[in-house]
Amino acid sequence: MHKKILYFILFIFLFLSLSACEKQQSIILFNNLPITKENLLNNATEFSTEKRIYYVFITELPLKTNQIRVRIMKRDEKARNQAIKVVYSNDFKLYKDQVYYYNDYIVINEAGAYCMAIYAKNDLSEPMAVADFLVKN
What is the mean pLDDT of the chain? Predict the structure, then answer.
């Protein structure tokens, strides 16, 4: 079990260190299936209503906080930079083996364009990572 976790963290570290984006130090990836090391890079951005949306938040550097806030905002499809309302916001405690990643799933019952932002609980002024996705009927 420890070997699998070590390989997963090593894969994440290599993925982030070899990527072309130097500015972005963290990322959110979505999937229709529970996220494993085999399907980690099968990123999806379109989902069906009332189905599970699995996500993983990955960071290049260890997190300096033991709590994060996951916030999902519904966006106006015509004005992509404007959030209409917050549809989900929850705080999560990170465990010692989650200093480089956090994964979970959500279920959204209403179609539309959404944005997920993940914040450090001790710094809610700027998100660590932001990702857009669509939910369709």
Answer: 85
